[in-house]
Design brief:
79 residues, flat, mainly alpha
Length: 79
């Protein structure tokens, strides 16, 4: 991942956690709402940066081609 991708991921995670804490979210449905709101905050920031710089934040640098991934618990086997 690029530095920008890491920063926007961290923003989404921090926003989600703080929203969940302030809403006192308990259980999957309420935390899912907080996650969508937190992700939306990071999305708006990413889109604004991309608009102002004319460059995409998202890169393909962390992409693994099909057949190169391994499933958890299946050591040595390809997916």
């Amino acid at each position: 991942m690029t530095e920008a991708e890491l920063i926007f991921t961290a923003l989404a995670e921090l926003s989600t956690r703080q929203i969940a804490e302030s809403d006192q979210a308990k259980g999957m449905p309420k935390n899912k709402v907080a996650a969508r709101k937190g992700g939306g905050i990071a999305k708006k920031a990413r889109l604004e940066l991309e608009e102002r710089t004319g460059r995409s934040v998202v890169s393909g640098s962390n992409f693994l081609p099909p057949g190169k991934t391994k499933l958890p618990g299946k050591a040595g086997e390809e997916a």
